Amino acid sequence: MNYRDLLNSGANVSVTLKLEDLREIFKEMVSSIKPKTNDQSPEDFLSRKEVLNLLKIDSSTLWSWEKTGYIKSYPFGGRKRYKLVDVEAIRTGRKGVRHGK
């Protein structure tokens, strides 16, 4: 039985490993982990003020849209940012209009 089978079995067991075996397990785990690629750079996000100016809306409208899920905000350094693609979809009419809550 290898360590993966042991992990998948869910058995409550104690295991003793040689240091070299532990190193080999970590190497295998690290090589199998794909680095998370963040396809979005800071330029792909807009500040609240930029969104308000671009969409020509009031801050209460933006707040309402966030609460209803029409647009999503993302925290950056304690401030909200909005995806440029989401804002452009609203601005160009590609995002459907939601009525009510």
Number of strands: 3
Task: Output the number of helix runs.
Answer: 5
Main CATH class of the largest domain: Mainly Alpha
Q: List low-confidence stretches.
A: none
State the major sheet.
3 strands, antiparallel
Structural class: alpha+beta
Mean of all residue-level pLDDT scores:
83
Radius of gyration: 24 Å
Strand sequence of the main sheet, in spatial order?
A: 1-3-2
What CATH calls the topology of the largest domain is Arc Repressor Mutant, subunit A
How many domain modules? 2
What are the secondary-structure elements, in order, as H or E?
Answer: HHEHHEEH
CATH architecture of the largest domain: Orthogonal Bundle
As a percent range, the share of helical residues equals 40-55%
Share in β-strands: 5-15%
Structural shape: elongated
Distance between the termini: 55 Å
What does this structure look like?
There is one protein chain. The protein is α+β, with helices and mostly antiparallel strands and 101 residues long. It folds into two domains: 3-32; 42-91, Arc Repressor Mutant, subunit A (Orthogonal Bundle). Helix content is 47%, strand content 12%. The protein has five helices and three strands; from the N terminus they run H-H-E-H-H-E-E-H. It has helices at residues 3-9, 19-32, 48-55, 59-68, 84-91, and strands at 45-47, 73-76, 79-83. A three-stranded antiparallel beta sheet has the order 1-3-2. A hairpin with a 2-residue loop joins strand 2 and strand 3. The chain is elongated and about 65 Å long. The protein starts with a helix and ends in a 10-residue tail after the last helix. The mean pLDDT is 83. This is Helix-turn-helix transcriptional regulator. It comes from Dysgonomonas termitidis. InterPro entries: DNA-bd_dom_put_sf.
